[in-house]
Amino acid sequence: MTLLRSPSDTPRGVASRRQLQWFDIALLLGALGVIGVLISWWNVFSRRLIGENLQLQEQVAVMPPEQALERAKRLELMIVGESAVLASMLVALVVGLWLVAQERQRRTQQMARLLQFTGHEFKTPVAGLKALLEALKAGKVPADAQARLLDHGLHACDSLEHLTDSMLVLQRSRAIDPRALGQQDAMSLVLNIVDHRRTAHVGEEVRIGDLESCLVRADRDAVRVVLENLFDNARKYGGAKTTVTSVAEGERLRISIADSGRGFLPRDAERLFEVERASSGEGVTHGSGLGLHLSRQLARAMGGDLVAESEGPGKGAAFHLWLTRVPEVRST
Predict the structure, then answer these.
(1) Quick one: fold of 180-325?
(2) pLDDT per residue over 221-261, tens digit each?
């Protein structure tokens, strides 16, 4: 039995966590440093202001009124100007810290929701597997129904495996710089996934259309998880027949998985990627949407994107994975 290890326990995960900790410390020290500089500056400025004010009081008795008035106005202008600069810097610092705090809060809430719905997605198949094993142990499953129920159990295991892969790869991908991704052969990526699907899912028909032969910047495991999730989604809601194609468009490559299933309303395309999407009539499927949500996050972590397209209910759907192409080196 292979034990899955959290990416946070791997060298890459530990390094990523340490980077975040050092970033927090550096941010706090930077903010304290700026505040210290501003306080020191205001201390020096106020001392100089007091000195100039005392000097002006001593000179005003022997100074012509016009000259005294002019110097007083210059002093007032200096006070207003430097006070405005100080106030602006303090406001900018506070706003910057507030924006950082808001971003951290948003990420924390997003992670909490993700964990909540991940737990829900795990609970349902685990409960089904437990009930199946208990029934088999008690001898309550008829012989003619065992094969069918075991197939359901294996399907539940596949769902758990894909969900676990998605979470682990997503966690790892957050520490990856899209510019530092390796070069992968796009056609090889697609063909390997299709071969695996044909072997692991008997009866699922995957037709290979035109495939572009080029290099893309991508994480192999992330692409595998995204395509597996898209094929699973097509099998669940689009029937057993799917078509996979790829085409180069400018600096990007589009890998498309299309089906002829139930489809969805065009206005609901973005909602398919939301966690805890709710049914709003024909064309929008039930479920938490966690698989598609994770797939889009993985695609964007690689510098690409994942979008959905359909002409309407009953007219099928297509999901397009966008990846960045590696520029071709032309020999002279």
Answers:
(1) Heat Shock Protein 90 (3.30.565)
(2) 889 889 988 988 888 876 668 899 999 998 999 999 998 88
User: b vs e for 64-80, b when ≥16 Cβ sit within 10 Å of the residue's Cβ?
Assistant: eeeeeeebeeeeeeeee
Looking at the whole model, is its pTM more than 0.90?
no
SS (H, E, C) the chain: CCCCCCHHHCHHHHHHHHHHHHHHHHHHHHHHHHHHHHHHHHHHHHHHHHHHHHHHHHHCCCCCHHHHHHHHHHHHHHHHHHHHHHHHHHHHHHHHHHHHHHHHHHHHHHHHHHHHHHHHHHHHHHHHHHHHHHHHHCCCCCHHHHHHHHHHHHHHHHHHHHHHHHHHHHHHHCCCCHHHCCEEEHHHHHHHHHHHHHHHCCCCEEEECCCCCCEEECCHHHHHHHHHHHHHHHHHHCCCEEEEEEEEECCEEEEEEEECCCCCCHHHCHHHHCCCCCCCCCCCCCCCCHHHHHHHHHHHHCCCEEEEECCCCCCCEEEEEEEEECCCCCCC
- List the Cα angle 258/261/266 in 5-degree steps: 75
Domain ranges of the chain: 1-175, 180-325
In one letter, which amino acid is 262?
A: R
pLDDT tens, 48-85?
766 666 666 666 666 676 776 777 777 777 777 777 77
pLDDT band at 172 (very low <50, low <70, confident <90, very high): low
First-to-last C-alpha distance (Å) of the chain = 54
